[in-house]
Amino acid sequence: MPTTLKSALTPLALACGLAASAGVHAGPLAEMSAEAKDAYREGLIWATYATSESLDSFALDVEVEGNTATLEGEVESVIERRLAERIALGTEGIDKVVNRIRVEPDLVIVAATLAPQRSFARMVGDAAITAKIDSLLLWNEYTDGLDINVETVDGKVTLTGVADTRNSRKMADRLARAVAGVREVDNRLSIDENAEGQVAVADDGDGVMSDSWISAKVRSTLRYAGDISDYDIHVEAEDGTVMLSGQVDSDRERRLAIELAQGVRGVQSVDARGLTAS
After folding, report:
1. Scanning 1, 48, 128, 149, which has its CA 20 to 30 A from the CA of 182?
2. Which keywords belong to this entry (predicted)?
3. What's the CATH architecture for 211-277?
4. Among the ranges 10-14, 38-42, 182-186, 223-227, which has the highest mean pLDDT value?
């Protein structure tokens, strides 16, 4: 089924359609056979992907057996991979996700032409916010390796877990607030000075902080920030020094761009002489 047609259908209709194609009746969930329930949940997860502006361009496969969903396919970045997993975990009856989705940064995708359903867009938008904050925490030298859980409901972000210093707690809050779409942050992080943060290996397959890794993460960090017009910012990295050039809308945006770039793991210094404010 073409992506554009999938996006025009309701997720419930898609779920029922998939169940019907498996030869089972999609009646009330409690009255379904185990096979019907699996097919229904597969359809619901797949349909949510189809109505997501972040995922509907990718060919993703879903297989449900009991309370376990297995995901396969290819996406462009770790953000989409995490988002797909969170959507599956948010489906009623799914307690475990086996995520076999591969990250292919050079994947060529076709943009969706129809907007997602509003009710599902809200849920998917929250999951996207959570995935972006998770990534920023992982990439930042003050928060990587810390046990921080992120939950988002209607744009309100709740941070729970443990920070090792007041500075890392403050940075986690700062990173969460920087993400586009965040309306409020409830920072419930406790501070345990005996908790030693350790470098976490980025799960996009590149654990080496090369200049290409650094520049990619700085670009993504600036792109996720809601208060920065990153379209005119050019990022280069050489021997750990990040060069920012281009133009932003204000001095405040310029300072925020520098601050966020400085926090990325592996960045030794930031040269923003080429970045101007209009």
Report:
1. 48
2. Signal
3. 2-Layer Sandwich (3.30)
4. 182-186
